[in-house]
Amino acid sequence: MQKPFTLSVKVVIRDAEGRCLLLRRAQSSKGNPGKWEFPGGKVGTGEEFEQVVQREVSEETDLTICLQRALGTAQADLPTRKVVYLILEADLESGPEPREVLLSGEHDGFAWLYPHELLTVDLVRHFIPFVRRYAQGEV
Amino acid sequence: MQKPFTLSVKVVIRDAEGRCLLLRRAQSSKGNPGKWEFPGGKVGTGEEFEQVVQREVSEETDLTICLQRALGTAQADLPTRKVVYLILEADLESGPEPREVLLSGEHDGFAWLYPHELLTVDLVRHFIPFVRRYAQGEV
Predict the structure, then answer these.
(1) Cα separations in angstroms, A22 against A100, A118, A119
(2) How far is B53 from chain A (nearest CA, A)?
(3) pLDDT 10s digit of each residue in chain B, 139 long?
(4) From the CA of A115, how many Å to the nearest CA of chain B?
(5) pLDDT digits (tens, 9 = 90+) for A19-76
(6) End-to-end CA distance of chain B
(7) Any chain A CB within 8 A of the CB of B94?
(8) For chain A, what are the domain ranges?
(9) Residues of A with CB below 8 A from B70's CB?
(10) Do B86 and A88 touch (CB under 8 A)?
(11) Cα–Cα distance measured from residue A64 to residue A83, given in angstroms and rounded to the nearest whole number
């Protein structure tokens, strides 16, 4: 019996200087506590992926974004299922500066990093191949 | 006003020899008639992406597949919306050979090509960057 696949959407949010937002998973997280990741979440049945992105970003950061393009994919092979990550790029929606990130209980830290700095933090492992390509400007 | 994004899932189906299935869009197609593409289709509201893949592959080819992994993305910028393509890889489900491809009215030709041959046909333009990487073994 093959494991089911589920879809999760993650978003690389860029600020006006081209820095990207990473969030650190809370120590209480079931999976990958203390590791860094991009905002986003699972696309459940009956949900449009674009709405999921906006909602998850709002819940996890309180930011409003403007989706730009698809960047790539990642994948996690869990004991009972495989998760496919669709990774998008977005800009902060224009408006009054500065933008304040308000975290949910899911994360306990955030950082705005230039693409070449993204590999300097302890990323959730399954995003590393994608981030390596992104940091090298290959996407 | 930003254009809405819609999600489409495409799948690179491989046979036992590692050849990939391409389909040629019918001359009656509204978009890209006569161009080559991978099977798959739009993920509508309320649909699980994995079910969409299986259904579209069944409708367009009559084949049954076993999803393997996420390969990458593509994007099309249409007049009224942007389409994000999530591209997966799948094997033919094991069973009696040979497998016969039965096309729907949406396509009028098919070909099993090795990855390095994929760029020799007239592909739907927005898949070319992805296929270039795939053909070079970069995904």
Answers:
(1) 14, 8, 11
(2) 11
(3) 678 999 999 999 999 999 999 999 999 999 999 999 999 999 987 788 899 999 999 999 999 999 999 999 999 999 999 999 999 999 998 766 667 999 999 999 999 999 999 999 999 999 999 999 999 988 8
(4) 19
(5) 999 999 999 999 999 999 999 999 987 788 899 999 999 999 999 999 999 999 999 9
(6) 35
(7) no
(8) 5-135
(9) 73-75, 84-86
(10) no
(11) 25
Q: What local confidence, expressed as pLDDT, does residue A81 receive?
A: 93
Closest residue to B45, CB basis, from A7, A46, A71 = A46
B-chain residues near A47 (CB < 8 A): 45
- The minimum CA-CA distance between A70 and chain B, rounded to whole Å, is 6
Q: Which fold has domain A5-135?
A: Nucleoside Triphosphate Pyrophosphohydrolase (3.90.79)
Among B2, B48, B23, B55, residue whose Cα is nearest residue B122:
B23
Q: What is the pTM of this model?
A: 0.93
Measured CA to CA, the distance from residue B37 to residue A60 in angstroms comes to 37
Tokens of A8: 């999760």
d(CA B71, CA B11) in angstroms, rounded, equals 9
Judged by a CB distance cut-off of 8 A, whether residue B72 touches chain A is yes
- In terms of Cα–Cα distance, which of A95, A128, A118 is closest to A18? A118
For residue B25, which of B84, B111, B100 has the smallest C-alpha distance? B111
> How far is residue B91's CA from residue B11's CA, in Å, rounded to a whole number?
10
ipTM for the complex shown: 0.90
What amino acid occupies position A27? Q
* Closest in A4, A5, A70 to B84, CB measured: A70
DSSP string, A10-75: EEEEE-TTS-EEEEEEPTT-SSSTT-EE-SEEE--TT--HHHHHHHHHHHHH---EEEEEEEEEEE
